[in-house]
Amino acid sequence: xxxxxxxxxxxxxxxxxxxxxxxxxxxxxxxxxxxxxxxxxxxxxxxxxxxxxxxxxxxxxxxxxxxxxxxxxxxxxxxxxxxxxxxxxxxxxxxxxxxxxxxxxxxxxxxxxxxxxxxxxxxxxxxxxxxxxxxxxxxxxxxxxxxxxxxxxxxxxxxxxxxxxxxxxxxxxxxxxxxxxxxxxxxxxxxxxxxxxxxxxxxxxxxxxxxxxxxxxxxxxxxxxxxxxxxxxxxxxxxxxxxxxxxxxxxxxxxxxxxxxxxxxxxxxxxxxxxxxxxxxxxxxxxxxxxxxxxxxxxxxxxxxxxxxxxxxxxxxxxxxxxxx
Length: 325
Fold this sequence. Notes:
By secondary structure, the protein is α+β, with helices and mostly antiparallel strands. It has 3 domains: 6-79, RNA-binding S4 domain (Structural Genomics Hypothetical 15.5 Kd Protein In mrcA-pckA Intergenic Region, Chain A, Roll); 81-175, Pseudouridine synthase; 177-325, Pseudouridine synthase (2-Layer Sandwich), CATH 3.30.2350. It contains 6 helices and 19 strands. Strands 7, 8, 9, 10, 11, 16, 17, 18 and 19 form a 9-stranded mixed sheet that branches. Helix 1 packs across helix 2 (39-47).
């Protein structure tokens, strides 16, 4: 194992199924032993062949009974109960005080993961530089994080430094009082201002994609959906493309991307919601940047506004199009 990172080295850990235990599914017992793993992460680990029942490899659908030996044999990072510190990451903190901070997340970085397998997220950065945040928030995998940005969306992320501040800011999010604004480049020409209010739901058969909810006779066709409101303001147009300022009060997964697709003006470079369109500038990601956050400070009550400049890769696109913000 020479040269292998210490947390990649195999580790063995064992549990004894309590005597008298009725038959229990393997994935359910994994979560009982490792409660900080989601069901999806537990099932993923089972697929990676790291769990054993007595002397045989545990497989999906297996059941355990009282007195049996349940073992983990795999890389240590899969046992991590919280994001692992990533000392190699350097991110710009554009605002910070005793209650909160705002980080400018680059494209290509996840906001957080759901297990120790994620090593280069914003959460890993926070675990290294501000370890006390691992006890703040609603989940140990989201240290102080009040919202998230998609991996390939750049821009501002708000982080609370204590639980009282987290709850106060979270209440502002629920009431739609935190203002988030984005710059987005879309296909087609958008005139003036538009408001999109399509409810969103998970796309059938596509776990990673959201879709708008259609109604039939006034009744929703999906069991679960989320209300979402997106405001568009056209800033300039060139070569069949429009630069938008986008505002949202809600925070549904992929809200802007799904709404723009439904509106017929998908984001330039979006591989999921605009995959039938080319990536004419070779961005390798969607043209979407969260440039503004406005909120009421959880302690002082004063209004706070934080901004972020357009990243260089997106700025060069606007230069080629001769567009100005």
